[in-house]
Amino acid sequence: MKYPQAILFLLFCSFALLSCKKKTEKPILPPITTTGENTFGCYIDGEPYAIFDGTPNPWYHTWTKIDDLFANGTLEVFVQKENPRWRFNIMTFNPNHLIGTFISSGEYPYISECQINLDGGTMPSNENLYYTSNLQKIKVVYSIAISGMQYSGTFSGEMINSEGKIIKITEGRFDIKKN
Fold first, then answer.
1. Is there a contact between 153 and 173 (Cβ–Cβ < 8 Å)?
2. Residue 106 to residues 68, 86, 90: CA-CA distances in angstroms?
3. Residue 150, strand partner residues
4. Contacts for 102 with CB less than 8 Å, ≥ 6 apart
5. Short-list 66, 45, 51, 48, CA closest to 161
6. What angle do CA 71, 69, 111 make, to 5 degrees?
7. Of 2, 76, 100, 114, whose CA is between 20 and 30 Å from 87?
């Protein structure tokens, strides 16, 4: 009698293990999309920074936004996140809203910034504010560029703070649509 019970027990355990579903973890970065998902993500020195459900409404603490700034052709992608608090601002010269590769460097107003306040503070400091320079640049590849409506693309590069510390940005992606 013990032998059939053991077989039944092993069968039950096998079915129980096979029917267990692995928990699906949220991806570290949002996927690269071109459908106006209001997402943003990148690695900064290997650490993920991401917004999965952004909104163009800046009254929320976490949001994504695009602007066609100035008459000189500046295109800005701006994101902000809470808990932990950080913001990322990419500015490029793209007067005709073209797809393709553009550089954000140290030439105003085509300078990009990243402020990381992991302690919850809001003020920029020499340590937590990074920016592009003539040597540290961000390469932006726009795959969608619809003036005043939607911008999608990828980015990577480096930024530096006023103390000379350089951060490396990799696998950047954004897909931001105005509502």
1. yes
2. 19, 21, 12
3. 146, 177
4. 75, 92, 93, 94, 139, 140, 141, 142
5. 45
6. 105
7. 100
For tokens 């603490």, the residue is 61
Q: What is the three-class DSSP state of 150?
A: strand
- Assess whether pLDDT exceeds 70 at residue 170: yes
Percent of the chain with pLDDT over 90: 36
Q: To which residue do tokens 């010269």 refer?
A: 93
CA distance 153 to 176: 9
C-alpha 41: how far from chain center:
2
Q: Tokens 């069968």, residue?
A: 11
- Closest by Cα among 9, 24, 33, 11 to 150: 33
Q: Is the pLDDT of residue 123 over 70?
A: no
Q: Which two tokens stand for residue 93?
A: 């010269």
Domain boundary assignment for the chain: 29-177
Total-model pTM: 0.79
pLDDT tens, position by position, 146-163: 887 888 999 999 999 999
Beta strands, E only, 14-163: 39-44, 47-51, 63-69, 74-81, 85-93, 100-104, 113-117, 129-131, 138-146, 150-160
